[in-house]
Amino acid sequence: MLVNKEWYYTLWEDPQEPDAIKIIDQRDLPHAFTIRTLSSVKDCFVAIQEMWVRGAPLIGVTAAYGAWFAAKEAQVGIDPPAMFTKMLDYLKQSRPTAVNLFYALDRVARAVENDFSEMATIALNEARAIRREEIEMSKAIGKHGVKLLRDLADKKQTKGPLNILTHCNAGWLACIDYGTATAPIYEAFQQGLDVHVWVDETRPRNQGASLTAWELGQMGVPHTLIADNTGGLLMQRGMVDAVLVGSDRTTANGDVANKIGTYLKALAAKDNQVPFYVALPTSSIDMHMHDGVTNMPIEERTADEVCCMSGVNDQGLVERIRIAPENTQAANYAFDVTPASLVTSLITEEGVCKANTKAIEALMSKKG
Q1: Does the active-site annotation cover 25?
Q2: Cα→Cα distances 296→104, 284, 288, 356, 365, Å
Q3: 270 — phi, psi (to 5°)?
């Protein structure tokens, strides 16, 4: 997507550095645009765990390239298969909730298991394939999702734009390009549909304020930043036509794990008869888990993310400040789970389906 009118992906190979990959360091946005180089398994682990990269699809692709680094390192060792497996297990510990992480690592592992003599080449080809597929899936999500947005716009009783509320960042920054929840929005905007996005600030880490608002602004999409707790009021007053969010993991029965606060938006949407859509690639669907509310692993992150914030001060310098009393105990659950009963539809690259076991199984059967 566009950054200062130039086209970028979130992760790419640089011909000048054939043994590394480049990423956009999302920690510095929106105040600085920083490109970093990853060239080892440890680099990828840190980038994922410390959220240089974030968003389920991008985490998966970064992990896939981490598996390539693992293959290169293992190939020169005494026991390449054992060393490779050990490094993949290490990468799996970087973040526990996003299923794309495990999907990508397991897929690369399967690709190399029959030919460890060429494991580095095979792993690189598989990482490239996963990256390419994520781009195509995001494109397809946009094509399927825009039909829902057009239908809502046609049925809209009042004048004005189609108002979409989103939470966290499920944009191109969370993927490789286009995004998941933003893909239908970008497609609608490019088709000339009058759209406006309510952007939740998304505490903690403020991914809505820092990332979604930034990328929508770069693309010229009309948007308004709001505090996290504003969405319910807007829905009560008829100022939201649809809620559109992403997913870090969706279970086989349609429960959706996403950034903390998503569940509350779904409750408000249900109470106000506002459709609640979840946009995701099928690589984010965990067909081995059938009850997300009970079984979903929820990452707990450092209390500093709740007690501190970063921003630009009056001198134009990025500064980190404490907003809570010193020594305050804080809990920081990174995700919550929205039950399938609150989800209107899932939007995937294979099409739109209801959030229930039968519909999801039918959808997944299309992939063979």
Answers
A1: no
A2: 19, 13, 11, 17, 24
A3: -60, -45
What are the domain boundaries of the chain? Answer: 2-133, 143-365
pLDDT tens sequence across 13-30: 999 999 999 999 999 999
Whole-number Å distance between alpha carbons of 32 and 29: 5
Phi, psi angles (nearest 5°) of residue 145: -70, -30
Residues 282 and 367: beta-carbon distance below 8 Å: yes
CA-closest candidate to residue 142, choices 191, 103, 106: 191
State the Cα–Cα distance between residues 166 and 232, nearest whole angstrom. 12
Q: What is the pLDDT of residues 185-239, one digit of tens each?
A: 999 999 999 999 999 999 999 999 999 999 999 999 999 999 999 999 999 999 9
* Homologous superfamily of the 2-133 domain (CATH): translation initiation factor eif-2b, domain 1 (1.20.120.420)
Superfamily assignment of 143-365 in CATH? Answer: Translation initiation factor eif-2b; domain 2 (3.40.50.10470)
Q: Give 99-155 as a 3 state SS string.
A: HHHHHHHHHHHHHHCCCHHHHHHHHHHHHHHHHHHHHHHHHHHHHHHHHHHHHHHHH
My answer on whether omega of the bond before 81 falls inside 30° of 0, hence cis, is no
Rounded distance, CA 336 to CA 284, Å? 15
Given the residues 228, 248, 286, 336, select the one marked as catalytic: 248
CA 209/CA 225 separation, integer angstroms: 7
CB 249 within 8 A of CB 299: no
Q: What is the mean pLDDT of residues 40-54?
A: 97
Residue 168 in 3-state DSSP?
coil
Burial code of 17-36, b = ≥16 C-beta within 10 A, e = fewer? eeebbbbbbbbbbbeeeeeb
Cα separation, 229 vs 222, in Å, equals 21
**DSSP labels, 269-305:** HHHTT--EEEE--GGGEETT-S-HHHH----B--THH
C-alpha–C-alpha distance, residues 42 and 24, integer Å: 17
